[in-house]
Fold this sequence. Notes:
Elements: E1 2-6, E2 20-25, E3 27-30, E4 33-36, E5 46-52, E6 57-64, E7 71-78, E8 82-87, E9 96-102, E10 107-112, E11 120-123, E12 131-145, E13 149-162, E14 165-173, E15 176-182, E16 187-190, E17 201-202, E18 206-217, E19 221-229, E20 235-237, E21 246-251, E22 255-258, E23 261-266, E24 271-278, E25 283-298, E26 302-305, E27 315-322, E28 325-328, E29 335-338, E30 345-346, E31 352-355, E32 360-372, E33 379-390, E34 393-405
Parallel strand pairs: 1-5, 10-21, 11-22
Antiparallel strand pairs: 2-9, 3-4, 5-8, 6-7, 6-9, 10-12, 12-18, 13-16, 13-17, 13-19, 13-20, 14-15, 14-18, 19-21, 19-22, 23-25, 24-25, 25-32, 26-31, 27-28, 27-33, 29-32, 30-31, 33-34
Amino acid sequence: MQKSILINKSVFREGIMKKSLLVVLSFLAIVGQVMSQTLNIRPVQAVAIDFQGVAGATYVIQASPDLTNWVNLAAIQGNKGNFSFTNFPPAGSGHLFYRSIFASDATAILSLDAASPTTMTVPVDNTTIGQSLGLTVLVFDVGAKNGVLHLHDLKVNISAQGSGFVTAAYLYHGSTRISSASALSGQADFGIIADNTEGATIPADSTAPYIVKVDLTSFSRLTVTAWIADNDTQTIYDPFDLAVPVYGSAIGNAVTVLGAGPAFSLTGSSSVNMTVSSDGTNEFKTYAFSFPVSVFAVGQNVTLWMPNSQRESFIWNTVVLVNGDKVSLDSMNASTSCSAPLGAVLSGDGKSFTVPSFGTATFTLTYIFSVKSPVANLYAVEIEGIDWSLGGDLSYGHLFDQPWTSLFIR
């Protein structure tokens, strides 16, 4: 037999008292019968409770034996203000207190972490079989607003261009692996993350970073980009196991894995220096933009021609940005210089240098140009690609998936 109890309209507002409706169902076992301390009812296997609440609000139904330790039983939406809940208390549970509380108004915010990889080229782990394992392609943050959050089901998009495959993806918090998933479909679904998974819970009003790593195989050159967005049905729970709204996105930079040839990367931030001079009639501003560059020779010797060597240089498609618009270096009378490379062998005429196989060379590229009678423009330099030569012949041209852009300066 089922007993239905209507709870009167006694709703306590948030900020005045806890949003809750409380009903006490106390049971006393007497000679095979279950008697209520307040209601004379027959033995029951289920208790149905009718609540009156706020239309459209979501409530969490809880039970407690002592009004101190509460257990979540269910989450129910009061579509018309009234809602019902049926409980099947275990045998011998004794006194039970029930209440409904408003679900949390927690939200999750996705954003790109500053530690996420920049646009770069890295060497393959195993040149024999063309394989790289555990390559970091994205670091993103999850911000917990107005409540504790728990990751439940995250979907990360993974794009791969070139030869080869991204076979698997992994989700980490620090050094702790939270989940793994196949990435062959172009999306890694880190699904059904258990409540007690280490690293998957974010304290209220805090931010936690998460790392996406991938395995790559059967490639000679592969460019990977990963991103996570709120429109991909991300599922993040509040403490009541209710999905919270998710906002924001995190789009990673392109990471290229190279099986053979030069792997270029920036070793730090670009810098810019501006000086002012005058010829007595006109004022000039001279800008010097510098980029700290590293090149790793993957699987073979790599020869690079210096700027102004009357050969194909290893830098191409370099432009000046004036208020964001591209202008050629020639129109700015720009000059390019390269510092003496460390870790490489300079040719006798100084026009090229060779990085030995599996060696690394570092150098600084500098672009200098002057502006006559300058106005309040913003200037920057952008490097869009790399050329290199093998045995004196141009053999490789690589257009960056995302250009290297310097700081802007007036």
